[in-house]
Design brief:
about 450 residues, alpha+beta, Immunoglobulin-like, 3 domains, 6-stranded mixed sheet, about 30% strand, signal
Length: about 450
């Protein structure tokens, strides 16, 4: 009898950790009733919209196909150990795993679109700016490198003033149903007839995203969902409700240009400048340029293009000011230019082009299960090219695949080993990396650098 009692207790413990034990979110309107990214500067709703936009949600089955690989760390995904077992216990850990996304402070999250990250960068003093997460369950197909996602959870971290700060809060974790995912996907399909962000605005409105009671809210109405944080800017007309954008763009010879677009007209007489900083935490200004009367423009800067660089919009200091007044921050520059790795056809490996200190570099992701990759790739090489139209024998420089250096990578992608090569070819628009299996037998090429701008 004692054994039977213990056995029943054990089954109860296991059954308590099932997907069905979590509250479910079945429709967009249900998002109004939970505390998930629904008020500035939280980013959870924006993150969920992006996730669906990058996914193919099956209309008949409860599976999701994606154009990214969570196990590879794309867009900041990281392995979630589930050590506290508050998520359903995996029945086959060799084929199943949990991964989370949403920590914008991580370098490999910098590939997320600006509409997801802008609140984070422009609410530095808020403890809520980086709390939202999405957790997915990834299932690997038997005898194949194909995978699918079959569970999606939305959750948040405990607040910073809590003794469990930076840990997942089980009491604010919800299972997202496929009905909700399909509803968001339908909204996106319908909205693309107009513009990419139109669907986001509609989604945020339906989900009850709350805006701060700022003066511009009365003018911009729902449009102010994007533009909460224009400090010291007196927005007077709907014309000022624009998608202000600041970013780093590649220039020639490994350098960069600061770019700005759609600055509110009401600030153009306030002596505005764009300035370049090493990263989001830096106070060291590397360069600055006046914007004059140009609401959109670029400024060439002789600073080597590398990861983390950030453009900020400042008001020039007057005789009475100690320093410039910060208005807005762009995202930190993603060294891969927001391009995920390209798969090597037929192999458990992928290739990524990125910039470091002004030079073109290559990164190989090799699955740990691909144990004999050095034998298979013994005669393989990666070439760097100045343009997409060049023949394979017209490379600028190359490196043997087996000579790439193993990188000390985060434990967040245990399914992959990462190897890098830093060339001496200056990064510039059009540069490309290609993987040759042998001689000029190409199996993969990256997109031409800067082709997505």
């Amino acid at each position: 009898m004692a054994w039977q009692t213990l056995h029943c207790y054990f089954l109860l413990v296991l059954s308590g950790s099932t997907a069905s034990s979590f509250p479910t979110i079945d429709a967009i309107r249900d998002l109004r009733g939970i505390w998930f990214g629904n008020i500035f500067p939280r980013h959870g709703l924006h993150l969920l919209y992006w996730f669906v936009d990058q996914s193919d949600v099956s209309s008949n089955y409860e599976t999701i196909q994606t154009n990214f690989d969570p196990a590879r760390g794309d867009y900041g995904f990281g392995y979630y150990s589930n050590n506290d077992s508050f998520l359903p216990v995996l029945t086959n850990p060799k084929r199943e795993a949990y991964y989370s996304v949403g920590d914008i402070s991580k370098k490999n999250s910098w590939g997320l679109p600006e509409y997801v990250t802008e609140s984070y960068y422009n609410s530095l003093k808020s403890g809520d700016r980086n709390r939202d997460r999405i957790i997915v369950r990834v299932v690997q197909a038997n005898g194949s490198n194909e995978f699918k996602l079959d569970k999606v959870f939305v959750t948040q971290l405990h607040p910073l003033n809590d003794n469990q700060a930076n840990m997942i809060d089980p009491n604010h974790t919800y299972l997202v149903t496929f009905d909700l995912l399909r509803e968001i996907q339908t909204l996106q399909v319908l909205s693309r007839r107009n513009d990419t962000l139109a669907g986001l605005e509609e989604f945020l409105t339906q989900a009850g995203y709350q805006t701060c009671p700022t003066p511009e809210f009365r003018v911009c109405s729902s449009k102010s969902i994007r533009f909460q944080k224009l400090q010291m800017v007196d927005i007077k007309t709907v014309d000022d409700c624009v998608f202000l954008k600041l970013d780093v763009q590649p220039a020639m010879n490994g350098y960069l240009k600061m770019s700005w677009s759609k600055l509110p007209k009401s600030i153009m007489d306030l002596n505005m400048v764009v300035a370049l900083f090493n990263d989001d935490t830096s106070t060291n200004m590397l360069a600055k340029s006046p914007v004059g009367n140009e609401t959109s423009g670029t400024s060439d800067v002789t600073v080597a293009l590398t990861s983390g660089l950030q453009v900020r919009l400042l008001k020039q200091k007057s005789l009475w000011d100690v320093m410039e007044k910060e208005i807005w921050r762009g995202a930190e520059f993603d060294s891969s230019y927001s391009l995920i790795p390209v798969s090597l056809k037929g192999y458990d490996a992928s290739l990524q082009l990125y910039a470091k200190d002004g030079y073109a570099c290559g990164r190989l992701f090799v699955k740990t299960s691909f144990v004999d990759w050095k034998e298979v790739f013994y005669k393989s090489w990666v070439g760097f090219y100045s343009g997409n139209s060049l023949n394979n024998n017209k490379y600028y420089t190359f490196q043997w695949a087996v000579s790439f250096t193993k990188q000390s990578w985060s434990e967040e992608i245990p399914a992959y080993d990462v190897y890098v090569y830093e060339s001496r070819m200056a990064i510039a628009p059009g540069v490309q990396a290609r993987f040759m299996m042998s001689k000029y037998n190409e199996v993969a090429r990256t997109a031409a650098w800067g082709s997505q701008t």
